[in-house]
Design brief:
Elements: H1 2-15, E1 20-28, E2 31-38, E3 44-51, E4 54-56, E5 60-62, E6 65-69, E7 75-84, E8 88-90, E9 93-94, E10 97-99, H2 100-103, E11 109-116, E12 119-126, E13 133-139, E14 142-143, E15 147-149, E16 152-157, E17 164-173, E18 179-189, E19 192-195, E20 203-214, H3 221-227, H4 232-238, E21 252-260, E22 265-270, E23 275-280, E24 283-289, E25 292-293, E26 301-310, E27 314-316, E28 319-321, E29 333-337, E30 343-345, E31 356-358, E32 362-363, H5 366-375, E33 381-385
Parallel strand pairs: 1-9, 22-33, 25-31, 30-32
Antiparallel strand pairs: 1-2, 2-6, 3-4, 3-7, 5-6, 7-8, 7-10, 11-12, 12-16, 13-14, 13-17, 15-16, 17-18, 18-19, 20-21, 22-23, 23-24, 26-29, 26-33, 27-28, 29-30
């Protein structure tokens, strides 16, 4: 009896292995790719997924590889049904549960430069899912060391980087034997290393009536902003709008104004000297010549960079003037300020730099504004002054 019981306990382990082995090939852009290996010769096989949003059938199947387009779901349960004349119907599958939330994680990078007397220290913080491990980090192709810090990877560097773009590549090992590699652009300016084109600095939102709104057919985001006395950049930031020129009717919007917290980057524009000073941690990094508004059309005050556009289109009294045309005077970059009628942008007329010639915007040489766009993120404080003095090496207590 004892031997019979022992045989009964052991027999299912060997006689009933998983009939189907699922291999996860990738999950990108909401598309899950997998293959199914069988321990028998099937006459037919059917593969479906059960997710939070319902049953999902394969969108494509070729050579034993199945592709599923999945909506918003944190997981998928795999159901494989097969049949053979020798064994009949078979359905046991391994694995049955797929953690989609982990596979869809998007890592991010934060970069902070700390200016010390003995040089500049760069702190690079890299996020990862709790089920991911980092196998290698390279900067411009060379390996760099890191250590775990509160579930993230932290690397500390002390070196002088050349001005321009640098590439940080992070290699990850994921569940189900997958591997992924992510490349992030960093930007060095006068020895200060930041994230290229920057993250948006922290901000708070002051919501205004009617607090929420549904976009109606034919409406533009600019019209909605004007109606509720908010700025276009406010709506873009609060609602995480990717393309402000294409907002669909029926889109739900939150209505409010953005107020940024303090940050390490500050831009000072002196109307008296037609110069711009760029500061980081209150240390002067560079001075640029600029073109200003005629008379007093560029008023002194405190502003923020609220929106940034590459190769901007000019909208002028109902006319749409595309970039790279002689009539478009915005140049290659457009940095919208928190006061909607003012911006820092490039120019198609470089000979006008240093003059008072604009309607209130601050113009720069295209190569200078491209550097500023790469270095100064959304939320950067812009201080406009009118004083007959040079920019101080330290900004502390000045112009405030």
């Amino acid at each position: 009896m004892k031997n019979t019981l022992l045989l009964f306990l052991i027999f299912p382990v060997f006689a009933l292995p998983f009939a189907h082995h699922v291999k996860i090939l990738g999950y990108d852009g909401g598309v899950l790719r997998l293959s199914v290996e069988t321990l028998y010769n099937p006459d037919w096989i059917r593969v479906i997924l059960m997710t939070q949003t319902g049953v999902v059938f394969p969108e494509r199947e070729a050579s034993g590889i199945y592709e599923f387009r999945i909506g918003r779901s944190d997981y998928a349960l795999v159901s494989v049904q097969g049949f053979s004349k020798e064994y009949g119907p078979l359905s046991s599958t391994n694995p049955m549960y797929i953690d989609l939330k982990s596979l869809s994680f998007k890592p991010s990078v934060s970069v902070v430069s700390d200016i010390k007397k003995d040089g500049i220290y760069e702190y690079i913080l890299i996020t990862k899912d709790e089920k991911w491990t980092i196998s290698k980090i390279t900067l411009d192709g060379r390996n760099i060391k890191w250590f775990d810090w509160l579930g993230k990877a932290l690397t500390v560097l002390k070196e002088r980087f050349s001005d321009g773009v640098h590439k940080l590549t992070v290699n990850y090992r994921l569940p189900y034997g997958l591997r992924k590699s992510f490349t992030f652009k960093l930007f060095s300016f006068k020895g200060v290393l930041v994230l290229y084109r920057g993250k948006t600095y922290p901000y708070r939102v002051d919501y205004v009536k009617p607090y929420t709104y549904i976009v109606q057919p034919g409406e533009t985001l600019w019209e909605i902003a004007k109606r509720f006395n908010v700025r276009l950049g406010d709506l873009i930031l609060i609602n995480d709008i990717k393309d402000p020129d294409r907002v669909r009717s029926g889109t739900f919007l939150r209505i409010g104004k953005v107020v940024f917290d303090e940050n390490p980057t500050t831009i000072v524009i002196n109307l008296f000297t037609a110069r711009m000073g760029v500061y980081y941690e209150n240390k002067l990094l560079a001075v640029y010549p600029v073109a200003l508004g005629r008379s007093d059309s560029t008023p002194p005050g405190d502003y923020w960079i609220l929106r940034k556009v590459v190769n901007p289109t000019l909208y002028w009294y109902g006319e749409i003037i595309p970039p790279d045309t002689p009539l478009n005077g915005l140049g290659t970059r457009y940095l919208q300020l928190s006061q909607p009628q003012y911006a820092i942008h490039g120019t198609s007329k470089p000979w006008e730099i240093g003059k008072r010639i604009s309607h209130g915007c601050i113009r720069m040489f295209n190569h200078d504004v491209e550097t500023l766009d790469a270095f100064a993120p959304i939320g950067t404080n812009v201080i406009v002054i009118k004083e007959n003095e040079r920019f101080p090496k330290k900004l502390e207590g000045v112009f405030r």
